[in-house]
Structures are given as structure tokens and as C-alpha cells.
Design goal:
Layout (H helix, E strand, L loop, with lengths): L5 H20 L5 H10 L12 H17 L4 H7 L1 H17 L9 E5 L8 H8 L9 E3 L14 E4 L6
Antiparallel strand pairs: 1-2, 1-3
Helix pairs in contact: 1-2, 1-5, 2-3, 2-5, 3-5, 4-5
């Protein structure tokens, strides 16, 4: 499976930052607000390749319509492949985190990989990493991660403080 280039990862990370700001300013951490800012700041990429022209326009339109409707149209998903679902899930996951930014008790989140992602060694390494000293796959709440495409379907789970 093709991976993002270093330049693409930097662009996606920057666009996520802008998307988080936009979602945070919206009424309820709106995923469509995130996506609009993410798109505006060049966050949409095909792994390792350029995404231009009509395909890019269809993807952007389908993403925004899907977020507004609360589901991805099956016909569009079939036409655009995994990139539509990847960006749809990214918008939902990132806005899930944004909704927790104001809670001082929540300081980290865990990366949850779906079974199909566990087949890929790069995805397994990504979620087993303890890059922040918080445990494998645990990331500070405001840190931005860009999972490799093999981790499609990855979810974020905020970590609640332990009782005791």
C-alpha cells in the first residue's frame, strides 16, 4: 500500500491544525467546519501521488455532502475508493477530539486500529509506538498524528482519568 510522502504528511498535519481551529470555533465541534478548513489548507492527498482535477472536485463535494448528511453515499464511495472514507473518518475523529479540548481531565487519547489495519506492519508499529511516554498508542490530546493509509478506519478514544 502506498504511503504519504513527508511533504504530504506535513501538509496534512498543518491542515488538521487549521481544521481543529475551525471546528473549535463552530457551535458543536462541527465536522463540516473541520473539513472546509482542512480542504482550504491543502489537507486532501492521495498517498504518494497528486490528486487533481475532476477527481479532486468530486472527492471534496462528496466529503462535504457526506458530512452534512451524516453518512457516505455508497455510489460515491465505490467511485472514489478508500480516500473518501479516509477523509470522512478523519473529519469525524478530529472533531471528536476537538470536543474534548476544554476538559482539563482529558489529556490524552489512544489510537484504536481496526482488525484489517493490524495486517500491516507499519500500522502495527504506528500504534505500538510510545513516542510521548504515555504508553503504546497513547497521544497527548492536542498532538496531531497522521496515520499511514494502511491504518484506514483508525479511531481515537479519549482517555478518562482513572478513579482512585
Amino acid at each position: 500500500m502506498e504511503n504519504y510522502t513527508a511533504r504530504q504528511v506535513a501538509s496534512i498535519r498543518s491542515a488538521i491544525r487549521h481544521g481543529r481551529i475551525a471546528a473549535g470555533r463552530s457551535a458543536h465541534g462541527d465536522a463540516e467546519a473541520f473539513a472546509r478548513a482542512f480542504i482550504k489548507h491543502d489537507g486532501i492527498h492521495a498517498p504518494g501521488a497528486a490528486l487533481e482535477g475532476e477527481t479532486r472536485r468530486r472527492l471534496i463535494t462528496s466529503l462535504l455532502v457526506s458530512l452534512r448528511d451524516g453518512q457516505v453515499n455508497a455510489d460515491q464511495a465505490a467511485k472514489l475508493g478508500p480516500i473518501l472514507m479516509r477523509e470522512y473518518n478523519r473529519a469525524l475523529a478530529e472533531t471528536y477530539l476537538v470536543r474534548h479540548f476544554g476538559n482539563p481531565e482529558i489529556t490524552a487519547y489512544r489510537l484504536l486500529v481496526p482488525p484489517e489495519g493490524r495486517r500491516f506492519s507499519s500500522c502495527r508499529r504506528f500504534v505500538r509506538s510510545d513516542a510521548f511516554g504515555l504508553g503504546p498508542g497513547v497521544v497527548p490530546l492536542e498532538e496531531i498524528v497522521v496515520p499511514p493509509p494502511c491504518c484506514d478506519g483508525i479511531r481515537f478514544q479519549v482517555l478518562l482519568p482513572e478513579a482512585g
